[in-house]
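Inputs:
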Amino acid sequence: MNPGENHIDAPDYIEAPLAPKHTRMQEFGRMLKQNRLAALGFFIFVLFFLCAVTGLILTSGTKPLFNPAMVRLEEKLRPPLSKPNLQALRPDQVPVLNVYLMGTDDLGRDVFARMLQGAWVSLTVGFVAVGISVFIGIFMGGIAGYFGQHHIKAIHILFFLCLIGGIGLVLINAVFAGTALLLLCLSSIVFLLSARDKLPEKTLPAWKGILLGNAVSVDTLIMRIVDIMLCFPSFFLILTVVALLPASIYNIMIVIGLTSWMGTTRFVRAEFLSLREQDFVAAAKALGIGNFRIIFRHIMPNAVAPVLVSATIGIATAILTEAGLSFLGFGVPPPHATWGNILSDGKNFIFDAPWLTFIPGIAILIVVLSFNLFGEGLRDILNPKLRERH
Amino acid sequence: METTHKHNAIILRLEKVKKYFPIRRGFFQHTVGWVKAVDGVSFDIEQGKTMGLVGESGCGKSTVARLILKLLETDDGNIIFKGRNIGRFSEKEMKPFRKEVQIIFQDPFGSLNPRMTVGQCIEEGIRILGVKRASARKERLENLLNMVGMSYDSADRYPHEFSGGQRQRIGIARALSVEPSLIVCDEPVSALDVSIQAQIINLLKDLQDQLGLSYLFISHDLNIVGYLCDTISVMYNGSIMESASSEDIFNHPYHPYTKSLLSAVPDPNKKWDVTLSLEQRYESDAVYDGCKHQKKCPWVEKQCRKNPIDFVQVEANHFVRCWKTKKSDLKVI
Amino acid sequence: MDKRPKSHGTPLLRVENLKVYFQGDGKRARAVDGISYEVHQKQTVCIVGESGCGKTVSALSILGLIPSPPGEIVSGKIFFSGQDLLKLDEKTMQNIRGNQIAMVFQEPLTSLNPVFTIGDQLGEAVSTHKSMGAESLKRYMIQLLSDVGIPSPEQRLNDYPHQLSGGQRQRVMIAMALSCDPDLMIADEPTTALDVTVQAQILELLRSIQQKRSMAILYISHDLGVVSAIAHWIYVMYAGIMAEQGNSDQIFRSPRHPYTQGLLASLPSLSKRGKRLYSIPGSVPNPAYKPTGCPFHPRCPHTISTCRKEYPNMCDYGHGHMARCPVLYEKREHTE
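Outputs:
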C-alpha cells in the first residue's frame, strides 16, 4: 500500500455533522427536564400568567364574575371557604361559587376576587417595568460596549448642558436666562459646523483646541452615569418620585423601569466587550458587514442570554417593589386591588383575620421564588458552553 | 524588493508597515512606552502564490494579518493591494476592497457565531456580494458547501454540532462567499488534530488551484509552511529577519534565528539535533538598540548592539537582516 | 536504546486492560476501552494520539484523578511497583501522588496559582511530602530551580508566575514535579503551549534530568515529531484503544497499523512539496458514538467486512512491535 497515492477528490468526502440535530425547542425541553427546580419555576410562571390573564377577564367590565369592589359590610372578615349569609345579601352580592374561597376583608370584599385583580397588576408592573429597564439597559450597554472607545468632544457636552439648562430655565419661567443659554447652545452648533472640516489641531487657538478636544470616552460617560444611578438607594428614590407624581399604576411601572436599568447595562456592556473581540465578529467586519448589522445580527443574539436571565429575576424584584410601595400606601390608588395593598389592609387584623396577611404574602413569595428559580435555570440552559459539552 | 519575477503580478505589498501599541500605566493611564508589535515589515505576495509568515507567539504575525484586513489601523507605512494604497483608506473608501481580502482563523470554535446556522453565516457573505434572488443565493450556498467538502444539509445546523475540522471548512466557505482574491490564513490548522490537518491543507491547495487564490499563510509550524508556501518570511519581535523561497530558507538559511528555528523542529525522518536552539540567555527588560535578535543570538557581537540592521539582499530573492551575510561568515558560524 | 529490555524483570508501571467510561446525557462514552501498557525504569514511554483518544484519561487514572461521576474505571488493573493502585484508599494514593508519581500539565499558566510566589508554591509541594527546616528548604528549592535551568533562582523564588515566561513556568512545574524524587513522571503535553525553540529546550531538559535521576517518564503527546525525538517506546492510541506499539524505529520506519501509516503519510514537510498530502478521511469519532468493531474502520483504506463486526486482535510483529490490525497482518504473511 502506498498512502501517498491514495487520491481523494473533494466530493468523495462530503462530511456529515457529528452530533444529532435538535431544534431549539427540543433542546429547551430536554434541559428543562434535567433541571427540576427550573421546571417548577417555569410551571408556576405559566400558572401565574394564566391566573393574571383570566383574573383580568373575570374581574373587569360592568358586571364582572368576581367583583373585587363589591362591599358587603355584613360579611366582613369571614375566613376562607366560609359560606355567605344568604339572608343578609342582595342576590347580586352573592359570590359566584356561593363560597368565599379566600374569605373576605374588613369591608366584606371577596379576597379571591381582589387577589385575581392584583395578579394582573403584579404581572403588568413586572413586565412593563422590566421591559423599560431592559430596553434602556441594552441600548446603553450596547453603545458603551461597542462604541465605547469613541470620544465625546467638550463642545458636545457644552451643547447638551446648555440645551437642558435652557429648556429647564424657560420652563420655570426664567425666560431671559433660559433664552441666553439656548442662544449659547445654538452658537455651539454653529461653531461645530464651522470647525467641521478644518486643518490639524496645531493651527487652532487654545480655546478652540480645548472645545474640540476629546473630553471623555463614551464608555466612561455611560458607566459613570450608571455608577451615579447606583449611588441612590433606589427604593427611596422611587418613593420620592412616586410621592411627587400623581398616583397611577403607569407612573409606578415607568419609575421602577427607569431606576433599574443599570444592572442590565453592565451585563450587556461586558458581553459586548468580550464578543467584540471574538473572531466571528472580526470575520463579519472583514466581509464588509456594517456596524448596525454586526450589532443586531451578530452580537446581540449572543448577548441576550444573560439579559434574559437578569430580566426574569428583575421581574421578581419589580413585583416586590410594587408590593412594597402599595404596602406603604404609595402604590396603586385604593379602589384598585394589588397584592401589596391587600397585605397592607390586612396587617391591622393580623390576629383576627390572619388570612388577609398570609394569602397575599404567600402569593408574592411563591411568584417571586418561581421567577428566581426559573431565571437561575435559564442561565444554565442558555449557556452555550454548558450545552456544547456532550 | 524589486528583483521579484516580473511576469507575476504582485497582489499585496507591504512597505515598512508599523503598528505600535501604547503601554499605559498609573492612575491616569498615561502612556509610558510603546510595544512595537509590527516594526517596519515589508513583503510581497504574488498573484496565485502562497507566502508563509513564520514566527513564535507574540512576534506580531497576527497583528500583520489584522493590519492587512484593516481590522487595525496602521501607524506608518503602506499596504498596497492591487496597486492601491489601502493603508490610509477610510471605512467608506475601503468598502469595495473589503471583500477582496478574507481571513481564516486559528480557533475553529471562536470563529463561527454560535447563534447562527451555517447557512446564515455563509449567506451573510453572499448578501454582501449583492445576490438578490433567493434561489440564486441557495444555489451559491450549496456550491460553496460542496466546494469545501460539506453536504448541503449542514446549512441549517448550528456550529456546535460540528467537529473542529468541519468548522474550519465552514470558516473557509464563509471566506470564499465574497469571492476574494487574497486569503489570510492565521494558523488555520494548528488547533486541529494531526489527521485532520492534512485534509484542510489539501483543501486549501485545491481551492488555490481552482480559484487562483493567493494566500498569506501565518504559522509557527515550519513543516506545514515548507510544504505549502512558495516563499517564506521569518518574523521575530516585530521585524522580518529573513525572507526567501521555501527551498532557500530550509536548505541554506543565513539568519541565526532561522537556523535555531529549523534545528528546533523535531522531524520523525531526521535525527534530532538541538544544539543551536539550546543556547539560552537570561532576558532582561532593558531597552536596547541594534539588532532585535541580540538577546537570543549565540553569535552576538559589538556591532549588533549598536546600530539597527538593514534588510540586505544576499542572493536573488533572498533577504536577511543580519551583519553576517557573507559566505565566509557562514563558515565561521 | 531502541530494543525494549524484555528481560529486565517487572516493569515500574503496568496497566492491564484498563477501561474508563464516562456517563452523561443518558449516553456512555467509552473514553478508554481496554488498553494495556508498561513503563520500565529509566525509560521514556510516549502515548501518542489525537484529541479525545483517551490518552489523558489513561494517565489521570494512574493518579486516581478521574472525576467520578461522570467518570468510572470499569475494569482493569494498574500495578505500580508491585501494588495495584486501583485498590488503594485515598490516603495512600495521596502519599503516592507527588511522592512516587508526579505530573506535569499542559498549561503552564493555569497550573500555577497566580496569587502566590514561585517560592510559596514550590515550598508547599516540597513540604507536603518532606519535612525540613526553612533554611534547608530554601537551599533545596534553589537547587531544584537551577537543576531545571532557571537562571538566578534565588530571585525567581520571590517572583509571581506572571513575571516568568511560558518556558520558565513550565520549568518551575517540572521542578515541582521533581521536588520529591519521583520514580515516574507523567508529562501531559508539557510543550504544546510553547514555541518550538522553547519546546526543544524543555525536551532536552527532560532528557538530561531523566539521565541524571534515573527516573521513568510517561510522556503524552499528539505531536509525532516530539515523540520521535524523545521516546524509547511508543504507544499509538486511537479512539480509546491501543492501535500500535513499538520503538521509534519500528513505528516511524515500518508502521503496521493503517492509522499510524496514515498519520505519518499525512505529515507535511518540505520534501513532499508539490505532491498531494495523504489525508485520513472523516473525523475523529465522538467517544459517545463510537463505531462497532474496529473503531478505525470508517476511515481505513483496508476495511473488510469483519472489521465492521469484530474487535481486532493485537498482532505480534516481533521485538515487541505489535499492531491491532489483523487485515494487514494477514496481507504481510501472504506477501512474505
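Remarks. The first strand of chain B starts at residue 10 and ends at 25. Residues 1-6, 277-286 of chain B have pLDDT under 50 and may be disordered.
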